[in-house]
Amino acid sequence: GENVEQHPSTLSVQEGDSAVIKCTYSDSASNYFPWYKQELGKRPQLIIDIRSNVGEKKDQRIAVTLNKTAKHFSLHITETQPEDSAVYFCAASKPASMFSGGYNKLIFGAGTRLAVHP
Amino acid sequence: NAGVTQTPKFQVLKTGQSMTLQCAQDMNHEYMSWYRQDPGMGLRLIHYSVGAGITDQGEVPNGYNVSRSTTEDFPLRLLSAAPSQTSVYFCASSSGVPLGGYTFGSGTRLTVV
Description:
The structure holds 2 protein chains of 2 kinds.
Chain A: E1 4-7, E2 10-14, E3 19-25, E4 32-38, E5 45-51, E6 56-59, E7 62-67, E8 72-77, E9 86-95, E10 104-108, E11 112-117
Parallel strand pairs in A: 2-11
Antiparallel strand pairs in A: 1-3, 3-8, 4-5, 4-9, 6-7, 7-8, 9-10, 9-11
Chain B: E1 4-7, E2 10-13, E3 19-25, E4 31-37, E5 43-51, E6 54-57, E7 64-66, E8 76-78, E9 87-94, E10 103-104, E11 108-112
Parallel strand pairs in B: 2-11
Antiparallel strand pairs in B: 1-3, 3-8, 4-5, 4-9, 5-6, 7-8, 9-10, 9-11
């Protein structure tokens, strides 16, 4: 099955610096790659996603890049702020089964704890 | 529109007890999933459903059962609780159109003693 590896497990940056989190996936059939942010004690929330027909996507201070050949994708956060401090999860998915229709079974990485220091 | 609602928020069980974690969504989403979250291990998929009457196993299904009799509800049953099942459980749903776009519930923190 799909395996998603995420690095680093912890990341500490100064406010205003950039942060980069990298993920690799094992299944070349995966076609959807979301990123979730989870603040302490809260639920994961989708912050950005990318599909396999796109190489890069940007939304204000966050961007995601995808390299299908190398099977890796990355989250880039620029001009970091203290409120960016959280755990970030990458995920990869592909159609789950013959019964799944449009459903993609979502497999997550282990997470990166980002700390932004003022 | 409440989104994804999970109950209870907290639960303590004794080893060997059974219980059901409830999950309901009011967004008419076809796709629903259960994840468990353990420190350093991310979110691991337990079971998922692609519509009423259709369920399948995820990465870590042992010790858990699910059923999907309606579009709205997707309960997770722990058959005989074990300390290894101490975790935070999240239910999530998606319309699948466009692909992805999962909405998570607020979670259930389960402790098995």
